[in-house]
Amino acid sequence: MSARTVDKIATGIIMAVAGFIVLILLGLLGYILIRGVGHISWHFLTSAPESIRAGGGIGPQLFNSVFLLVLTLIITVPLGIGAGIYMSEYAKPNRMTSFIRLVVEVLSSFPSIIVGLFGLLILVNKFGFGFSLFSGALALTIFNLPLMVRITEQGLRGVPLQQKEASFALGISKWKTIRSVLLPIATPVILSGTILAAGRIFGEAAALLFTAGMSSPRLDFTDWNPFDARSPLNPFRPAETLAVHIWKINSEGLAPDATQIAAGASAVLIIMVLVFNLGARALGRYMHNKFTAAK
Amino acid sequence: MERSVNMERSYNKRQEAKPHIAEEWVGKIYTLICIAFLVITIFSMVYFVASKGLSTFIVNGVNAFDLLTGLKWNPDIDVPSFGALPFIFGSFSTSILAAIIAAPLGFCAAVFIVELAPKFGRTFLQPVIELLAGIPSVVYGFVGLSVIVPLFRDLFPGQGIGIAAGALVLSVMILPTITTIATDALSELPAGLKEGSYALGATRWQTIYRVVLPTTMPQQMTGIVLGIARAFGEALAVQMVIGNAPHIPHSLFESTSTLTSAITLSMGNTAMGSVQNNVLWSLALILMLMTFVFVFVIRFLEGRKKL
């Protein structure tokens, strides 16, 4: 076989594989959406789940997912940006820094179930937070911090050195430079990275099984006092999120329409993740155009 | 008038008492606290998981060698036996099989994006693959359970659950990791290398196979190891399709378990501090040690980058 024929065959194979991957994704998305979207209704999105009868919804789970996401971001963002600033601006290039880098790398490759187990041991049992949204948010914070640090570092490193030097030349202190020169320029990168991280938080389940718990108490959506046990805003109540709910009804669901509920919930989850992904892209592009002269 | 002078003076005084230095310290201390929190968290994580995991051997007197090589997992009878080899075997076989499926696909996708059709690849295929990375693992598990398992049940003898279904689900999950790193490696390659090869009369495939692939090999391996690491630690998607029987299967289509699926299933049903519970922490410890191994393999491979 001549080299040219081999080249043609190889090119064909590579093309076919690329097409195959696109087919997998389209099939995956199409399957979930087609099977699930039909089941989505206002009733499905707002009503409470039924354990043995058909017709249950995912209302509390959806609320828990969103609330947990907000709680997690409130804790993760300041911590992650702070640590990212340290790694990019304050850390001196020495052994200590490369050691911290290694630690962050190890943390980012820890399986999420290990983070969940650690949460169970320390947050739930030792600190006594119990199975609660707060424990879940802290576990997700641990899980997402390395990503947040990496995003912040990436954003800060993308700032042109001249901007920093110009600020120093004006006699502005380092911290002030970071806050009012570097961070605003790095915001598009940090923001779109954070939205992607939010998508990851939204779909995470393994770290939550043993921290936020697998049960959802009956919520009273008219009670907005965060200190009441039945209030949806109480951060110290157990909360099953959407992703955990999908897992649970697939492994031990007793309702006759468990598969449809799983399909509907998966579709909701996928749509949310798609919104996060596309939102991050669009926002990044918009802010890039707005903040820079590039057209 | 006098008052405003006084105010100005006190303002000046305040300026002197609070120079830039104070502000500098705020920043330094704040960022230091953040990074310290991160470092302390990971150290306590390693410490607590290790101490819990080791207590199986120290407090409960289970033989570590028996745990690692035992074939029988029977924690609930009077004389319980804790052989975790089926779980270890399950974890390794599913994640390595997943990498074997995903690695060629990822490499081909990267070649397509960088070499064959950069415009279409960068604007369509790459975002599509990144989207795969964003899909939550429970959704992969659900699709695996409702598509792959019934398909395998029809095509092959057995229930359809098992290593093959787990590996297939995992391979789609780790495809983005492998592809992204392969794409980066290919596009970082200096153009001179390829042009030299073309100038010698080599075809595109010869160039890819003889020049591009060997030069980027360490990075390709990094991607594959990262993929294996991710597959190794994945819990729920695998647990949903693998069947969860605690023994080494005779075929790829027979129910078995992994480390993560065993932990997921039993952790909630055992009492803290019992030997049945501690042994699950030992499984978590094995998982954690494997993470360290993966990180160091990746570091080693990155050190061997040829460019």
Q: Percent of residues of chain A in beta strands?
A: under 5%
How would you state the average pLDDT of chain B, rounded? 84
Strand content of chain B: under 5%
Radius of gyration of chain A: 23 Å
Query: What is the H level of CATH, i.e. the homologous superfamily of the largest domain in chain B?
Result: MetI-like
Return the CATH architecture of the largest domain in chain B: Orthogonal Bundle
Question: Could you walk me through the main structural features you see in this protein, from its secondary elements to its overall organization?
Answer:
The complex is a heterodimer of chains A (295) and B (307). With 295 residues, chain A is an all-alpha fold. Helix content of chain A is 72%, strand content 0%. The radius of gyration of chain A is 23 Å and the shape is globular. Chain B folds into 2 domains: 2-59; 81-303, MetI-like fold. Helix content of chain B is 78%, strand content 1%. Chain B contains 12 helices and 2 strands, in the order αααββααααααααα. In chain B, a hairpin with a 6-residue loop joins strand 1 and strand 2 (81-82). The longest helix of chain B is centred in the first third of the chain and has 39 residues, at 20-58. At the A-B interface, helix 1, helix 3, helix 4, helix 5 and helix 6 of A face helix 2, helix 4, helix 5, helix 6 and helix 9 of B. Chain A: One of its GO terms (biological process) is phosphate ion transmembrane transport. Chain A: This is Phosphate transport system permease protein PstA.
